[in-house]
Amino acid sequence: MSIYIKETGNIHSNTLFMFIHGGGVSGWMWDKQVDYYSEYHCLIPDLPAQGLSQCCSPFTIKRSAHLLLDILKEKGKSKRIVVVGFSLGAQVLVQMLSMNPNLIDYAMINSALTRPMPYSASMIKPLIHLSFPLIKIKTFSRLQAQTLYIGKEQFPLYYKESIEMKKETLIQVLVENMTFCLPPQFSEANSNILVTVGEKERTIMKKSAKDLIASNKQCNGLIIRNIGHGFSFTNPTMFNQLIDDWLANKSPLNQQYILR
C-alpha cells in the first residue's frame, strides 16, 4: 500500500514543493507553509506507519526515501523541485539526496541528527515499554507537544495521532532517528542545500549541522537565533520568509547567523 500524500496548490505551477514532517507529528505540521505557498504545487506526505500512512508499515529512513523519490520523479517532471524536511523528515531528505544526487533542485535540511547515538538507541525499547502508557495521558502529551512548540490549535491532532501510534512504530522511529549516520554519497548531491539548526538545540544537533556542511560544497548553513527544535512551529512567518530569501538567492535574515 502506498503512503498518504496531500496534494495542494496549483498543479500547473513549474515549482513543486515537498514538505517532510518530523517524528511524532505528520503532514499537518506544515499547514502554515501549505497556506503560504498555495500558488505552487505542494506535496505533503505522511511517512510510513505515521499519520494517515499507518497501514504502510514498516517505517525506515531508507524505505521512506525510496518512496518519496519515486513520487518526485512522477510529479516533478520538468519542474523546479524544492524539498523541506524537519528532524526525522530532514534525515529522510539527507538520504534522498544521497540516493539521487541530481533530482532535487533545492533542499532545506532543518534540524537533522546525523551523529549516531547507539547507547541511547539501545535503551529505547525498554524505556518505551515502561513509558508508553503515559502517551494516553493528555497532561503528558501536552508537555511533549511543548517541546516541539505545538500550539493549542494543533494539539488535538497531535494527541489523536499520539494515542493511535503503535508501540512498535514509536520504537522503530526512535531507533532509526538515533542510529542514522551521514551517508558518504551525500557529498555527491548537486542540490542547492540549506542546513538550519536552532540556537537552543542540543550540541549534537549543531555538530550534525556542521558535519553536513563540511560534507558537501553545495551546503550553506544557518543557526537560527533563540529557536529550539521546531523552527516552523515557533515562527512560521520567519520560516517562510527564510525559504523565500533562500530561493531568491538573497542574504539571510538578520535574526540568523552563518553556521561555521
TrEMBL record:
Residues 16-118 form the AB hydrolase-1 domain. It comes from Metabacillus malikii. It holds the Pfam family Abhydrolase_1. Transmembrane segments: none annotated. This is Pimeloyl-ACP methyl ester carboxylesterase. It comes from the Bacteria. InterPro entries: AB_hydrolase_1, AB_hydrolase_fold, AB_hydrolase_sf.
